[in-house]
Amino acid sequence: MIKVGIVGGTGYTGVELLRLLAVHPDVQLTAITSRKEDGLPVADMFPSLRGRVALAFSAPEKADLSQCDVVFFATPHGVAMAQAPALLAAGVKVVDLAADFRLKDQASFEQWYKIPHTCPELLEQAVYGLAELNREAIQGASLIANPGCYPTTMQLGYYPLLKAGLIDAGALIADCKSGVSGAGRKAEIGTLFSESSDNFKAYSVAGHRHTPETAAQLQRFTEQKVDLVFTPHLVPMIRGMHSTLYARLTKEVSNEELQSLFEAQYKDAPFVDVMPFGSHPETRSTRGSNMLRMALHRPGNGNTVIVLVVQDNLVKGAAGQAVQCMNLMFGLEETTGLTQIALMP
Amino acid sequence: MIKVGIVGGTGYTGVELLRLLAVHPDVQLTAITSRKEDGLPVADMFPSLRGRVALAFSAPEKADLSQCDVVFFATPHGVAMAQAPALLAAGVKVVDLAADFRLKDQASFEQWYKIPHTCPELLEQAVYGLAELNREAIQGASLIANPGCYPTTMQLGYYPLLKAGLIDAGALIADCKSGVSGAGRKAEIGTLFSESSDNFKAYSVAGHRHTPETAAQLQRFTEQKVDLVFTPHLVPMIRGMHSTLYARLTKEVSNEELQSLFEAQYKDAPFVDVMPFGSHPETRSTRGSNMLRMALHRPGNGNTVIVLVVQDNLVKGAAGQAVQCMNLMFGLEETTGLTQIALMP
Amino acid sequence: MIKVGIVGGTGYTGVELLRLLAVHPDVQLTAITSRKEDGLPVADMFPSLRGRVALAFSAPEKADLSQCDVVFFATPHGVAMAQAPALLAAGVKVVDLAADFRLKDQASFEQWYKIPHTCPELLEQAVYGLAELNREAIQGASLIANPGCYPTTMQLGYYPLLKAGLIDAGALIADCKSGVSGAGRKAEIGTLFSESSDNFKAYSVAGHRHTPETAAQLQRFTEQKVDLVFTPHLVPMIRGMHSTLYARLTKEVSNEELQSLFEAQYKDAPFVDVMPFGSHPETRSTRGSNMLRMALHRPGNGNTVIVLVVQDNLVKGAAGQAVQCMNLMFGLEETTGLTQIALMP
Amino acid sequence: MIKVGIVGGTGYTGVELLRLLAVHPDVQLTAITSRKEDGLPVADMFPSLRGRVALAFSAPEKADLSQCDVVFFATPHGVAMAQAPALLAAGVKVVDLAADFRLKDQASFEQWYKIPHTCPELLEQAVYGLAELNREAIQGASLIANPGCYPTTMQLGYYPLLKAGLIDAGALIADCKSGVSGAGRKAEIGTLFSESSDNFKAYSVAGHRHTPETAAQLQRFTEQKVDLVFTPHLVPMIRGMHSTLYARLTKEVSNEELQSLFEAQYKDAPFVDVMPFGSHPETRSTRGSNMLRMALHRPGNGNTVIVLVVQDNLVKGAAGQAVQCMNLMFGLEETTGLTQIALMP
């Protein structure tokens, strides 16, 4: 059994990790920390876990995380970088669900996240946890930078087109929509039910932290210089993410060739579902599951190709992807503990 | 023109007062206070008011509320009692949308609201602003205690039955449901979209502040000793309140007589709609309007009578009712500025 | 492996059976019928099942259901009674998720469901599938009448009080609320998003089919003559049911005794969670799981006791309960394939 | 008083016309037709209108629409073209809220709407009812083609940029999102609450009827050859439309110049609100009102300009815009009867 610790278990990615790990056949939940909730049984905060998770939160200094085999950080940016060096030195693997190790470039990190990076020496060692494009590296990794939710959809959607050199890498437009849980479990007026229900809006249009992550990783994976306009929007639903990805074709290619390209790319990816050409994937078809679904469109058979991508932002976009990485790091079947079927309706 | 001031305009009852008063033909919005937002144009906080309300918030000490004809308090409990005496002394009428003057009994107030009452001498002078049962007193009032949202529905629903002596006043069960806006515009985790959407729960079942208000007022209005079990629930919708009121008949009475009793009671009430016997009123039929609708049921023609009551908790349950009181206090037609039709769908 | 057939797989209880049975370790999905969708792969209708369920719908006459070990009817009322006799004669067990066998009294059935009963001889043989109160009978059954969603909550909530003779069985008031999926997957205006979102209403207050089912079963289980006022309401959420059960205590009893009574009753029931006295269970704590949670209240320590009960109407209220029955009928552990943790948020 | 008839009053645009016209100071509601609901009081179908609209539906052959001054068609495509010629001949003005007269090109109409056009001779006479770009023509019109909801946002958002020749007219990408009421009040599974709540999806990506309308009208208004990729999506909210419009700048221009361009264009348009550069308009800021709000963005100060546009699809996107046209046609102030403030929250 893999002994698992979770730092910061009171947010949505934390409780989602608990939901998944509590039924994972190879995992023993060992510790979960929260300074504020020290001593509180986890199931008192999240009644969905009553009878299923017996752990209580413990203050960080009381939890001996060095006894774990792997520690997940479901924390705000900046926490993992403070604790990862000691854990790694103790032989504990680390999966950071925040952004501390997502950007290889320290200056870019500090510009976008407005905090100094305290262990830049780990940036090169950290492995970007997007299994579909980086599986081998993850298998040998000690430190995982779990991808952002939006970047997961954008990278998997654009990668085949960029890799094949079919589109103008300098003119990508990603119009993306997320459920409200993406904003986290924080007491804020903007995400109150009465503010975000029966409403739709864009946010951070001038610049969002997931733009540099996506552009940099796509360049690493495809060796193409990427220029990306990324526009996030807030949808009145709890979970779910829908990315509408636009690209301009620069070569002659048939729709069948496009479809084959995507199917070939993801034929061995258990969590990527390439739907028939012209499908309209719905976010609910992934609700609660680790599946990401996508479909191709080409309006008027013109030179614009559209990739529609959906996922559950808390599963494939966060906690599920992190468990997927853990499975690979520990030599388990990639799908272990991740076979939940989406809740529909 | 009536010069109107609003204390505490940043919450949901505040912005709802603004929506109603901005189109009221006899009102001139004169001042709106908020210590925290001093100087901020109201329309910057509430874009729905862009081009319609030119006022900016001002700190309380800068706003000369004594120049107003009437001041509405859309504030937490305890604010109105601090400022009302001076305003009344200056000849300004006061409408408190909070609970400071709802309970005539000081001890009961202090027990339920956990704060000392600082001007108990005004409790007797304060007039309970439920126009349908207290119209004359409101017309002559200087200080209005605007009723709570739940109590409005419970009083109007139970009153005809109690007044006629048809039911057991000692065995009332009110099962009530409210939209989330009733919790106010406060940064709290419990009313986040991701917490209260796609969910339903009861709250404060052990005891809610609206129980003593309702019981005491019903006793005043009907001279019957009332014992009330009141169970509030939270519905995943922004606005709307639905009260399902149960009572045990103690006299022989036909359904036609019951229906006639209610129709006669409210035939001159412009904001109470007694629907046909056996109807199922929907909250959305009142969304954004000052109408309250109700319908009678008698399952199996047994001795239980059910009154279903719906309203918009922010209009008839709060801001609209306050404007209705203002109209009466200033000798205007009761419906002035309150003729909005519900938004449906 | 248990060979399972499903009749009527295009509704919400049908797809929910598929979600549960597709991951059940002892089940082999063998046939699923739909006259209208003959030949259509199930996953084309429900993309959540892509890659997980390979079956296609087949017309009833093509599907050889007699080869199954058990057949679930997720159909409108009246279908199971037409097909059950032949299946039972062929040695196939039958679980009806509709109402055909819920009422032992043929006249009552025909009065409430407005259709003649075509195999009344099976009514006595049919076993009511409420495992928590009827486990032994279910283990030996060939024909299961799966309980209605509302009746499940009402029976489990009232049973301990009635059985112990603590309450007035002639004055039960059940104020119940259901998510919209309870209305089924039918093209109707009343359950359109634009009609039932941001809205709350009661329905069928004059009389609902779940009243006679609940009253009759409670009488069978407790031997008390039950009189029940049951008021259903529609909540703008997909899944979830919340019953607020009122009863009048007729004996002296402490809150601790009440709590102990319930805990003792359900200590061996893996899907009933008796929460601490005074808790407010939320429907979302059961979303997607087979758990039913309940909590006791006693406002003002008076003579009214309130039981709050929540469940997912499609799982414990329908498909999950049916699988629970199947597990018992085939000698499996009661929880097999039903260990999903609720999705929260 | 203007005598108004409505053909097809049972859908969402119909009831929205009633909500607006019932409080319009210069209108007398004269007739409302529905074959199916002949004789039913309008308020029985829409309880929000109880006490406010006394009319009953009447069968088309009973309603003498020729006595009206103006008739609104809130019908499926194809109805207005059948009745408009006779009404126009009788001197009655006609406003069609469907698409019968939106496309000047008969062949294009028949290709996209799959029905023959029965009065092509009226296509040239029909005036496109987008007041902000076509005010004078509307003032003199007898027959109005009320714009589609999406086209309203796309035209008002792109027009200033195209007119000024600042962008590549051959590379417009409009990513648009609509509330569910846009799908109408029809009994269909796809728009059930349980299907479209807590979900997000694109639809008709291969081609939507609003593409040719928008492209053709923009060409008429700007004399530029427009090529448009338009992608509609469905948002789980009742009302509201958000268009995210992308364009590539082809000339040097500062953000201040862009902002001034838009402000100048719409300074006399009472229902267009150009918000400060970089704002994020929310759909709810227009809920129930005839306002359309927009804001400009330029990510990274690059060559992509984004226009965010929001409106209530049933008001400015349908019924409100139709009333705005009526006001102009009858020489009234453009804003008469359309001063409702958005409902927020």
TrEMBL record, chains A, B, C, D:
A single cellular component GO annotation: cytoplasm
Record key words, sorted: Amino-acid biosynthesis, Arginine biosynthesis, Cytoplasm, NADP, Oxidoreductase
Primary residence: cytoplasm
Pathway entry: Amino-acid biosynthesis; L-arginine biosynthesis; N(2)-acetyl-L-ornithine from L-glutamate: step 3/4
Catalytic activity annotation: N-acetyl-L-glutamate 5-semialdehyde + phosphate + NADP(+) = N-acetyl-L-glutamyl 5-phosphate + NADPH + H(+)
Domain of life: Bacteria
Signal peptide: none
Active site per the UniProt annotation: C149
Pfam families reported in the protein's UniProt record: Semialdhyde_dh, Semialdhyde_dhC_1
UniProt record, GO biological process: L-arginine biosynthetic process
CDD domains: AGPR_1_C (cd23934), AGPR_1_N (cd17895)
Record has Oxidoreductase as a keyword: yes
Protein name: N-acetyl-gamma-glutamyl-phosphate reductase
Organism: Rugamonas rubra
Lineage: Bacteria, Pseudomonadati, Pseudomonadota, Betaproteobacteria, Burkholderiales
Gene: argC
